[in-house]
């Protein structure tokens, strides 16, 4: 007997082909997509607009496999963090941040991360594996379910934005991440607009161009330093793709996407990258660039070796950027009582060798 296909691993055209191969009409795919992504139903026997004969047949041919929620924590500010089991050895984390005008889900793309940024707890664990499509899109489905979306009034969104800012470097899991993001945007999927799905990268330059050529989403770039010597230390991938190459790729990305601004993330590390000098350097670097800057207070974790900049230093840094005309926002720290803040996502990862990153880079360079 053939193994059933996993619905959550398929794109719409693939699902249509699946039905054509069964001798069915391709619009069956539309019906099932609506049941799953719009109504939260994954039990085929409840999909009542499919004939009983077809439902009986599909029970053995199509499964709805998802990762499992291992635990859930709710912060005093309403932020929620879930630990999600993806296999026997590994868990990832996902965070939901409610605000008055939006609800943002922070989704993971890999189990661990090979890029080893010096201030990131995910990076400290090393890399284990890429997440499959079903494990990425499944996070959004699971969060919607846990947040009660499918029981609430139809069309009353709870998750309005998705950011690929959880564990992992999304551009090093390109195919699965793009397929999942396309489902987030599809009307038959989660129907989010292109501006409300954001991919954050530490700067895998060639893959930024590939992203521009493949799909349209908002881009955030983890810059964290205004010069190469400092960025080489904080974000080691900078040694392969220095700032000038990164900014050129960002400019091309913005041009391909109707001059959409790029968000530059900048973690505030006391005495490391937060002086007036660095603020001015950053202002010069991003002058005339379609940029927004997001200052992220550093979220400490044990043995990180860093501390967060003082509030007055963050404010001064922000004022210098604003005076030079850059739109600058200081990100609020949310969910700190449940370790749900940016960069604190640790999951439970059995790290394999770090070789992956080096191999990936060699492949990207050729
Ligand atoms: N790998 C991608 C996306 C995941 S990290 C990237 O690096 O962009 C999401 C964001 O959290 C990045 O901007 C990252 O630099 C930031 N981050 C990592 N560790 C952090 C910490 N301890 N405190 C604050 N931000 C952190
Ligand atoms: Fe990986 Fe992003 Fe963490 Fe760097 S900041 S180690 S790229 S998850």
Structure description:
The protein is of the alpha/beta class. Helix content is 34%, strand content 19%. The chain is built from twelve helices and 14 strands. It has a ten-stranded mixed sheet with strand order 3-4-5-6-9-10-11-12-13-14. Strands 1-2 form a two-stranded parallel ribbon. Helix 6 links the parallel strand 9 and strand 10. Iron/sulfur cluster binds next to helix 4.
The CATH class of the largest domain, by name, is Alpha Beta
For the largest beta sheet, what order do the strands appear in spatially? 3-4-5-6-9-10-11-12-13-14
CATH architecture annotation name of the largest domain: Alpha-Beta Barrel
At the third CATH level, what is the topology name of the largest domain? TIM Barrel
Tally of individual helices: 12
Q: What's the total count of β strands?
A: 14
Which word captures the global form?
Answer: elongated
The level of helicity is: 25-40%
Structural class: alpha/beta
| Mean pLDDT level | 92
CATH superfamily of the largest domain: Aldolase class I
How many domains? 2
């Amino acid at each position: 007997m053939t193994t059933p296909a996993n619905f959550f691993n398929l794109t719409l055209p693939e699902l249509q082909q699946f039905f054509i191969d069964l001798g069915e009409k391709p619009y069956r795919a539309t019906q099932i997509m609506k049941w799953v992504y719009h109504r939260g139903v994954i039990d085929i026997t409840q999909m009542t607009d499919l004939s009983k004969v077809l439902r009986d047949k599909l029970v053995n041919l199509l499964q709805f496999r998802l990762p499992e929620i291992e635990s859930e924590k709710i912060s005093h500010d309403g932020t929620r963090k879930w630990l999600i089991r993806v296999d026997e050895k590994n868990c990832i984390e996902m965070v939901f941040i409610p605000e008055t005008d939006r609800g943002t889900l922070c989704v993971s793309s890999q189990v661990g991360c090979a890029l080893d940024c010096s201030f990131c707890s995910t990076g400290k664990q090393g890399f284990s594996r890429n997440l499959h499509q079903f494990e990425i899109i499944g996070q959004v489905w699971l969060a919607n379910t846990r947040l009660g979306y499918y029981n609430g009034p139809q069309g009353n969104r709870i998750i309005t934005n998705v950011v690929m800012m959880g564990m992992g470097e999304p551009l090093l899991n390109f195919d699965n991440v793009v397929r999942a993001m396309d489902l987030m945007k599809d009307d038959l999927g989660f129907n989010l607009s292109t501006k409300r799905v954001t991919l954050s990268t530490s700067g895998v330059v060639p893959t930024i161009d590939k992203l521009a050529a493949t799909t349209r989403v908002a881009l955030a770039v983890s810059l964290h330093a205004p010069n190469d010597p400092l960025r080489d230390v904080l974000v080691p991938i900078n040694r392969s793709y220095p700032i000038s190459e990164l900014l050129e790729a960002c400019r091309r990305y913005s041009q391909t996407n109707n001059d959409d601004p790029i968000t530059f993330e900048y973690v505030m590390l006391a005495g490391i990258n937060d002086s007036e000098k660095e603020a001015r350097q950053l202002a010069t670097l991003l002058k005339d660039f379609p940029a927004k800057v997001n200052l992220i207070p550093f979220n400490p974790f044990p043995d990180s070796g860093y501390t967060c900049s003082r509030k007055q230093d963050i404010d001064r840094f922000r004022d210098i950027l604003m005076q030079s005309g850059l739109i600058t926002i200081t990100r609020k720290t949310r969910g700190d009582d449940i370790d749900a803040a940016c960069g604190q996502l640790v999951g439970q990862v059995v790290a394999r060798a770090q070789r992956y990153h080096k191999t990936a880079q060699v492949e990207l360079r050729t």
